[in-house]
């Protein structure tokens, strides 16, 4: 009985020893596993930390680039706004200048039309050789022929100014005499407002009116005036001729 108890105690001690050894082995393995997991977690953590650091740097650089782009955009917008304001100011100036030019053009056109009408209205009272040289006004009032109209009017006025220099101009035509019969007539124009007509038996002093020339026939002037065309043509020797000059009141001097 006593031996059996001792044997049982020995078995229990052996079992206890075996169990303790088994528990120590399992704990070591567990620690090893935990250490491996901790190492893996640390590696993952370090890797993620590195990735986060890289991402943080990239985000920081991207934000910096965006900030620079924003500054450039704001600068560009400010510059464009200034250019827009300058263009608007220039456009306003151009509109004012355009209106000024349009007003000036209209003023020139009105003056041109007035001068054209005035000159055309006086055509019948101009010396016939001068009237024959003057071209009629161009039709139309648009800007495409405005320059041509001005040029034509200027040429007409130059012809009038040249004719007004009181240089004698001899002109051959037909004219109604004292009795109204048309006869061959030699007319000597002296400027724009004086003329002398010579027919076979009579002579006249001519002055312009609003729509025609008025002729004052006078037989006493025939011989004196008859000499003038030949002298002017070089067919007779130069001589001093005394010719009456009509006055503004219709008389002569």
Q: Beta-sheet strand percentage?
A: 5-15%
Question: What structural class should be given to the helix and strand makeup?
Answer: alpha+beta
Strand order of the largest sheet: 1-2-3-4-5
Helical run tally: 4
Radius of gyration: 61 Å
Can you summarize the main beta sheet?
A: 5 strands, antiparallel
Q: Could you explain the architecture of this structure?
A:
This protein has 4 helices and 5 strands, in the order αααβββββα. It has helices at 2-121, 128-133, 146-163, 222-233; strands at residues 168-176, 182-190, 195-198, 203-208, 213-217. The chain has a 5-stranded antiparallel β-sheet, with helices on one face. Helix 1 runs parallel beside helix 3 (146-163).
Question: What labels would you give this structure?
Answer:
2 domains; 62% helix; alpha+beta; 4 helices; 253 residues; 5-stranded antiparallel sheet
SSE layout and pairing:
Layout: H1 2-121, H2 128-133, H3 146-163, E1 168-176, E2 182-190, E3 195-198, E4 203-208, E5 213-217, H4 222-233
Antiparallel strand pairs: 1-2, 2-3, 3-4, 4-5
Short précis:
This protein has 253 residues and is α+β, with helices and mostly antiparallel strands. The protein has helices at residues 2-121, 128-133, 146-163, 222-233; strands spanning 168-176, 182-190, 195-198, 203-208, 213-217.
């Amino acid at each position: 009985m006593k031996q059996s108890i001792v044997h049982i105690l020995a078995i229990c001690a052996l079992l206890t020893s075996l169990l303790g050894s088994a528990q120590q082995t399992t704990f070591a393995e567990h620690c090893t596993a935990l250490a491996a997991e901790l190492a893996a977690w640390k590696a993952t953590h370090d890797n993620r930390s590195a990735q986060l650091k890289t991402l943080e740097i990239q985000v920081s650089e991207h934000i910096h680039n965006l900030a620079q782009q924003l500054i450039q955009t704001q600068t560009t917008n400010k510059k464009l706004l200034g250019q827009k304001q300058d263009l608007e100011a220039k456009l306003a100036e151009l509109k004012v200048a355009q209106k000024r030019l349009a007003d000036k053009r209209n003023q020139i056109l009105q003056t041109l039309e007035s001068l054209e009408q005035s000159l055309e209205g006086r055509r019948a009272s101009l010396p016939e050789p001068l009237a024959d040289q003057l071209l009629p006004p161009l039709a139309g009032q648009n800007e495409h022929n405005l320059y041509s109209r001005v040029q034509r009017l200027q040429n007409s006025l130059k012809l009038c100014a040249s004719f007004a220099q009181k240089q004698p101009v001899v002109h051959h035509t037909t004219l109604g005499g004292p009795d109204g019969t048309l006869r061959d007539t030699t007319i000597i124009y002296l400027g724009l407002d004086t003329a002398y007509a010579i027919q076979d038996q009579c002579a006249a002093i001519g002055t312009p009116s609003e729509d025609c020339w008025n002729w004052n026939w006078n037989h006493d002037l025939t011989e004196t005036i008859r000499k003038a065309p030949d002298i002017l043509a070089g067919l007779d020797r130069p001589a001093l001729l005394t010719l009456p000059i009509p006055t503004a009141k219709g008389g002569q001097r």
